[in-house]
Amino acid sequence: MLEMSVLTSVVAVSAAGVLMGLRFKAPALIAATALLMIGSLAWNGLGLPGYVTVARFLVLAFALACAYIVGLSLSVRWKRSEG
Which ranges does the record mark as transmembrane (predicted)? Predict the structure, then answer.
């Protein structure tokens, strides 16, 4: 059960990263990483199941950054094919 929630969170964060990369620039990635950290701290503070460890946060932040780069490269490719 816990592994499924980790996989779901990585997929959700990656999808958000790709969508951010398609539309926004680097400051949005910094803000999203800060929001991810605040959300992780809030999740732990509320005592919800699936405690977010430092390692899990780093995995999510890495997935977010990689997905952002993918979205950014797709955005550049689409802009070049249009113009």
Answer: 29-48, 54-76
